[in-house]
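Predict the structure of Inner membrane protein.
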Amino acid sequence: MEIHQTNKNKKVWHWFTTSITAKFIITGVLTLLLMIPLSLIQDLITEREERQKGVVSELNEKWGDEILLYGPILKVPYKKHTETIQYNEITKKNEKQRTTQIHYAYFFPKDLDINSDVQTIPKKRNNFETTVFSADIVTSGSFETPNFSEKSVATDDIVWDKATLLIKTTNLKGLKSEVKLNLNGNAYNFETLPSDQSHIDTLESSFIALDDVPSEAVRSFDFKLSYNGSRSVQFVPIGKVTNVQMTSDWQHPKHSGSFITQHKRELDNGGFEAQWKLLHTNRPFSQQYFVILPSLTHYAFGTDFIIPLDEYHQSERAAKYGFLVIGLTFLVFFLIQTLSKISIHPFQYLMIGLALVMFYTLLISISEHSSFVKAYVIAGSAVVVMITLYSKSILKNWKFPVFIGTSLTALYSFIYVIIQLESYALLAGSIGLFVILGIVMYVSRKIDWYSETKKPLATA
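Done. Here is the predicted structure for Inner membrane protein.
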């Protein structure tokens, strides 16, 4: 009975060590186990990326925030009379009582021309980098005679001598110049009012001289603002005709917002020039408002100065293909040992898998001190050379190790191309995987999956 059990155990062990199915199962289990250190590396990349975001946010906050600008807006007070009838207990009669309240009307410019020049400045702290900018914005235009007929306001009820100008903007702490506006040849200073519910700060001028108020004729204006800012520059098209031109040395702009550019071109220095032209009929808001001036920030447009894929984002994308790299590499070794009848021990599979996982730790650590391209080449070359030499000790010749090294080089190159692509990443990845699947199907077509190798297991 004991001898029978011993023979049974030997048969099971022989099947376990020689069966193609058993080897395939072991390879699959090892692949899944290697997902544990790979997931830890992905957590490490996320942690380093979050730390970078914190440093970048701190640098941007100290330098200057996003810029959103619209103005000037003509603010004119007017009197609103209200009559009510009240019963007088003394006279025993109904008497009319008249109350007067001050309301405000807001009028946007007839013409609004904005020219902005944005020059980027790199900032670095320890291993983390960001890009901020310095923006010079020159605004000019004109106001036409305000129209109060919509509210049937009498001419005598318009308080022209209390008219002011408003400029709405964010990032006041990033302003580098005093805010002065020239209207009809005279300069006016601005004071800061508390920000409204949309977190937009309001700058208001002193009262405009009667000779400068556009009550009877068109009045022209111009002003210049210089900012330290980051991330984006946005404008709201409050002019009846709004023309915006932006130039910058930034090579990766993203034009965003409610309106698209009418013209854009790349400059010789790699920067860009963009132009927008908008009419009041292109936008869903009025040219004038009474009593309340609504928030118009959601109608803004402009440019986001986005940083292209940084090393952490690219490393994260590379790590997402870790399962593919490990799985395909193990598949190559599995096909080689199946077709050549050379046995490979599970421990050797494990060493190869750990070398593949080490690629990502090398990649993230080197990329913090160099460019992602250099880090990818160094890490990839180190892993390919290590696995190729280790394969030579296992497979005893150079034919298969050279093939493995070439396959790994092609696989890492393919993944790098996918990482760099944006619009066509999914297409290129799908085609590549389809080709790889076809090659595997072609190579494995003649394998007898029910046969057992008679050669005993030998380790290197």
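The longest helix spans residues 35-63.
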